[in-house]
Amino acid sequence: MPRLHRLGRLAGRFIATQEKRHDVCVISRSPLAKLEAYKAEKGWSIAWFSSFGSDFNYDFHVTLNENVLPPEANYRNKSETEAKKGHAVTMEGEQHGLSVLFQLDDGIFHTYSVYARGCESLSNAYRLLDQTPYGRQQDFEDSPSGWPQKPTYG
Prior knowledge:
Blueprint: H1 5-11, H2 15-19, E1 25-28, H3 32-42, E2 47-50, H4 56-59, E3 63-64, E4 72-73, E5 76-77, H5 78-83, E6 93-94, E7 97-104, E8 107-115, H6 125-130
Parallel strand pairs: 1-2
Antiparallel strand pairs: 3-6, 4-5, 7-8
């Protein structure tokens, strides 16, 4: 779970949402026991749920597998996504996203979802990288001749 170190930094920011009567939770595909062990190891208190064995990730288009459901990325099907120039999108495997659900009486409504760079507002790390000479070092970016094309910050 190498990318999850960012989750710990974000968890503290969720306190303000609780004060405004909003609940924030994280959902991952790993089995709950594995998530709970990692959460305990890090000392986190964030609400973390498992979608293991369910269709949740497919329904919200964060797990892409053509054998289960036609893949969709940022509300575009595979052919629309492949035709879009300027950025690379992998149309298989695990993605990340942010969704907002709203509860009114006994109903729960899906009101918003965003994926890929749309989730960046949760952390300033990528915006800070955008200000550096080497930037994010993503494969699709044009770097001047002689500049590295891969991450140099290890």
